[in-house]
Amino acid sequence: MSATGEQHVLGAAFIDDADTARACWRRWRAEADIEALDFETISTIPLLNGRFENWIEDDPQKPLLLGISKREWSRNHIHFRILERAVEVLRRAGIEPTLTGAAGSALSAPGRGIFPISGLELLIPRDRVSEALHELRDSGWQAPEGPRFGVASSVNLTNAQGDQCLIRWRLLTDPPEVSCEARAMTHATAHWQGSTFSIPSPAWQLADALRRSREPFSTAAALIALKCPVDWQEFRRAIEYRGVDEQIVARLEYLRGFAGFGIPPLQMHKPSKLRGIYRDYKRSKQQLGTQTFRTYLRLRWDVASTAELAPSLGRILQSEARRVGVSLGLR
Questions:
Q1: What b/e readout covers 24-43, taking b as 16+ CB neighbours within 10 angstroms?
Q2: What is the pLDDT of residue 231?
Q3: What was the pLDDT predicted at 328?
Q4: Whether residue 198 is found in the same domain as residue 64
Q5: Range(s) of the domain holding residue 289
Q6: Which of 109, 227, 237, 302 lies 20 to 30 angstroms, CA to CA, from 313?
Q7: CB of 217 within 8 A of CB of 8?
Q8: Which residues sit opposite 121 in a β-bridge?
Q9: What letter does residue 31 receive in the DSSP assignment?
Q10: Is pLDDT of 141 > 90?
Q11: Is the dihedral of CA 126, 127, 132, 137 positive or negative?
Q12: Is 22 inside a domain boundary?
């Protein structure tokens, strides 16, 4: 596997031995044009904060390199203050949100390393979403009324300052039964300047990062896999929750090649009948049309009665929810 600039910088950030890390940096820096770097590579440089200051004493681009880190530190500081206020509002209402996405990864960065926060997200237990949105509206956030819980997995909020925050009730998107994740997944506690946040465990963060990535390599996934204590059995349960496709397997293999250590293998497997029906319901209904889709369901999934497709699907999901002891509260 040929390493990208992003991966060279990550190597310098994550290698434990200081001399080896410095040598990795110097090899990359000898060929890199800082002003021509792609966004992904620039975003990894702040992870070197607290480590590379001595490496760049004689670097003509030292002000620019340090400026990149300072800029992201400032942005992260602002983002965490916004999240801090939103979390405080929800906690006063008895709702404990979980920080997901880049903010969760940022709290997992090693030492003084800075992981840029590209967006704000909070994961809310599904049966508390309506209440959470009401509380956030009262505190100045603007949110749409009545999100479609059976279809959507999140809703985007904005405030008067133009800040945006994504409220999610599913971490790993579709099917709906995964909405129980806010309670079923393992959480970890993270601290930032006197504030305490709940974040997904490293295993769930890694599963989330691999599913989000649209590229073979994910910086967030590398950060979690290399620097956090991942429970690999828990990771397998999380990643296999709705089936493992070839893209997930390929991303993990790519990460294994970069990491150079024993990430356990992951094999593809098809989703359960329930998950498969919901996946096909989302992907195929509009293309096939309702009548054709009902025929398709009968042939592929042996669905006996599809006269009322949505209610029928709802009953299937409710049955699965009872099996795992979780009430979905489907509408």
A1: bbeebbeebeeeebeebbbb
A2: 87
A3: 36
A4: yes
A5: 273-324
A6: 237
A7: no
A8: 166
A9: T
A10: yes
A11: positive
A12: yes
The answer to whether residue 77 scores a pLDDT higher than 90 is yes
Least confident of 77-91, 159-173, 306-320: 306-320
CA distance 100 to 208: 9
Supply the pTM of this predicted model: 0.74
Structure tokens at 328: 């979905």
Cα(55)–Cα(128) distance, integer angstroms: 49
Phi-psi region of 329 (alpha: psi -120 to 50; beta: other; left: phi over 0): left
The answer to the question of residue 330 being in a domain is no
Helix (H, G, I), strand (E, B) or coil at 143: coil
pLDDT tier, 225 (very low <50, low <70, confident <90, very high otherwise): confident
Look up residue 197 and give its two tokens: 């946040």
For residue 3, CA distances in Å to 9, 44, 289 come to 10, 14, 45
Token reading at 158:
């904005």
Give the C-alpha separation, 312 to 326, whole Å: 19
Q: Rounded CA gap, 105 and 206, in Å?
A: 9
Under a CB-based contact definition with an 8 Å cutoff, are residues 62 and 45 in contact? Answer: no
Q: Is residue 268 part of a domain?
A: no
pLDDT in tens, 149-201: 544 678 899 998 899 999 988 765 444 334 444 455 778 889 898 899 999 88
Q: Does residue 177 share a domain with residue 31?
A: no
- How far, in Å, CA of 94 to CA of 83, rounded? 16
pLDDT at residue 262 in the model? 62
Residue 316 CB contacts under 8 Å (≥ 6 apart), including other chains = 274, 277
**Which residue carries 């991966």 as its tokens?**
7
